[in-house]
Predict the structure.
Amino acid sequence: MADNLTLNDDTASNDTSTKAADDYFAASQWSLIRFKFKKHRLAMAGLTILAVLYTLALFPGFFSVNTHNETHTDYILMPPQGIHFVDAAGNFSLRPFVYGVRQEIDDETWEKTYVRDEAVRHPIRFFPQRENENLWGALTLGRHLVGVEAPGVWFPFGTDEFGRCLFSRTIAASQISLFIGIAGVMLSFLIGSFMGGLSGYFGGTIDIAIQRLIEFVLSIPSIPLWMALAAAMPQEWSSTQVFFGITIVLSVVGWANLARVVRGKTLEIREADFVMAARLMGVPTMQIIRRHILPSFASYLIVSITLGVPAMIIAETALSFLQIGIKPPAVSWGVLLQAAQSPNALSQSPWLLIPGAFVVLTVICFNFVGDGLRDAVDPYR
Amino acid sequence: MQELLSIKDLRVEFDLGRATLNAVNGVNLSLNAGESFGIVGESGSGKSVTAQAIMRIVPNPGKIVNGSIMLNAPGGAEQGSDGGVDLARINTRGGLIRKIRGGRIAMIFQEPMTSLSPVHRIGDQIVEAVMLHRTRDKAEARDIALHYLERMQITNPQQRFREYPFNLSGGMRQRVMIAMGLACDPDLLIADEPTTALDVTVQSQILELLEGLREEMGMSILYITHDLGVVAEVTQRIAVMYLGRIVETGTTRQVLKNPRHPYTKGLIDSFPKLSGARQERLQAIPGNVPVPIGLPWQCGFRSRCPVAIDGKCDTSVPAMTPVEDGHMVRCFHNGDTKEPPLPQAPAPRARRSLFSGGRT
Amino acid sequence: MAKYILKRLIYALILLWLISIVSFLVIELPPGDYLTSVVAALEQSGSKVSVEQLEALRQQYGLDLPSYLRYFRWISGFLVGDFGYSFEWNRPVSDLVVEPLILDAFIAVLIVLVTYAIAIPIAVYSATHQYSVGDHTVTFLSLLGLATPSFLLALVTLYIATTWFGIDLTGLNSDEFLLAPWSLAKFADMLWHLPTQILIVSTYMAAGVVRVMRASLLDELRKQYVVTARAKGVGERKLLFKYPVRLALNPIISEMAMVLPATISAATVTAVVLGLPTAGPMLLRALISQDTFLSATILMFLSFLVIIGSTIADLLLVLVDPRIKLERSEIRG
């Protein structure tokens, strides 16, 4: 009823919106989904943030301000440095700058503290003269996008216990953390849609067997199982091998949820009249699955896939945090969070939790996008 | 005859945020004790909202904005007219309305499938109602419940009592619903499309049962239906509703034999008759019921009316005009009386008119 | 009914058996066999291992047998309480795992109870006050909760406790009780430390439960039977709890099969952060040092907990929802 109201409203008001309404009804499935998705503000915001995060992850060398593995022994566990536009004297400068930092040792307690040195100012520039590394996918410029000139330092997120720039490390780590989510879901999706499709399409004994298998996989507590499987990976594996190893480990559990969705939808569509029509025309089974069933619920699969990524990212973070996932020198958000594990380090240097904020942000964005997609693909909303 | 329920100038609005939907637009209705009354109309006519307003169960964001719904004391005039309650002003979360709901006015609904709680036994659901209104004693409540199940001709009531709604057919469930409504011996039973979801054969069984019980128990029944067959079969008086207003009312015979409003005529023509001398083509009323938002101050039926008078029907609303004894109609073809606009109406809140005849 | 319960129990037994196979695979999976680890451990402690010794060990662990026979040996040991030997602790696994696993089971039950105690009132409030400020707050917080890994929530809690309140929440017991034998005082001390983990994991779990419960309650509130009950004259509060809340609980209970594994998972990771002597940290340690019999036993028992729990939940559901009996016996029949 509400929909009718809006449409009536539009048709009554003027001609252009009549045309808009006509377009709405004549639109293809996908442009309709895009139209409805764009109206979902949270989902659009989520998508934008994800686009930014993935862009950063693709070119970590370019977007970071330091080299992520470089140790700065003079700046161990230093808090984040603020950006300033106005200096101590109250002069405004359009170019932002950071103050220099001096280390002071308390005479009595021998505790180290970092003191802002307001005499020294390091202006933040585009493409500063500064050492860079060639991480995979880095723009060949060999420069950072922004930063301070060489002798000065700028640690936007502070440093870790080896004096490494946490900001640059977080950006570098996002590469593994963000892409392992995608890779894990893709592999799960391949297994899941194969199993779920078989189960839903053939029914009978195959269906029962696969359904039991799904229930079984889902009834094992996933973290302990992942831990066991991840720990079984040979120690001498390279970072790349570990990356794919973890992807496989995550998919061992991850496929089951997707298979459930696929099975449910297949059953629904299998009974649909257009499939019966195709079958009566003698279309071969695989072709019915590929040409008729898969396109009709591709949209639902995309939703499930989007909503499946967060679980993968969280799992990788947890495993790496427990030191049985991605291992240093490779970095992921979970690896960075290891530094925050001891309560002592945590209370002294809370900025070590910043990579965790990235995990939360990413997962929230994926959930928003997934929710938006789910509403958009539902033809009755 | 005693008046049991009297509705005056009832207006119910739904505030939809950017527009206000005028679901019931000044309804006057009087219902006598022991009477069988029917409100007939298409979906969107406001008939169900009127019924919900009596029970004060109008769903959010609907609100009664004007009028009164007087429910007179059981004895009527003998106990003095001040024994009545105005349901339109009652506190909907208070104890009084809870006594009235189920106790003095019971209601049964269209969907017997979803109207009963799926996880409670049938017997327990009836007993709950009985214990709220008739007795505190569980054993006695159980006997009463069983009695009414029997009265509704449910076979093997002892066993049905312990079953769950999903064990029963649609017809059986509706009997259970009715038994639940009657078990507290109400003065008025509101039956909102009681037979719409049922098979035709089951329909007439249930209607017969209801009428038998009405006469025996001396209660009134208010039928809310779109089905002229139902009203023709069981009601004594009817009111035809269109777009939140009653357009014609009278005894069932008066209205069906001698319809005066073009809408009533159209409704009767669009209804199939078995006893016609010759087979005629059914006449459908062109168009649809408009959405009652920001309605202009004109006859609601104008956009679909074959005999609308330009300059009259589109600028004023006809008032209810008597045409026979007890037979009233709201149409300029029966006189020139206009309804004075209420101070609040027409609602200026809807900026753009959603009123357009040809909604497809 | 009895037939359904029997069927459900047989099904649970089959699951247990499958889990034993998976756990056995965990023993077999690491490169090299168990003996490699043993020899490495022995050599590290300075003792030389001779060829004869090696052969004797090989015989003892049945490493020369084909794997299905080894599985059979392992599982039949299981039935008599022999879970193998932990070379890292130099003790039989059965001596090690009992205490932490009982603690884990105890904690898991408490977590589930506290989760529902937190989630149900919040969901009821949220659904009955849809689109209010409170409802939006609840929705936001539950989204945040769903996006936060449980260990991160534990870390943040620890940080807040130490810097704002100066309390150290790690460990199961205060330092003075660490080495003391079990006593009433130690138990009381534990009761002070346990709630940290239980509250953290429950809050984390509640985020998901609130979302499911709120959605299903909103669904139920719109149903006709609610109007019927209101029209009977049932009071609003009684009506809410007797009908829609009652029905909205069903998906929650049937989700138990999902909630329990997640609970165990979250408990495992948070226990590592909080340094609790439960099965989680022990599993992690066993996995890292490739103490395979120990890790397989813990994995197996943690899964057992889940299966026993979801079997109970399933049977509970039959009591709560009469419709299930019919559907399930059709599906599983």
Observations:
- The CA atoms of residues 121 and 162 of chain B lie 6 Å apart.
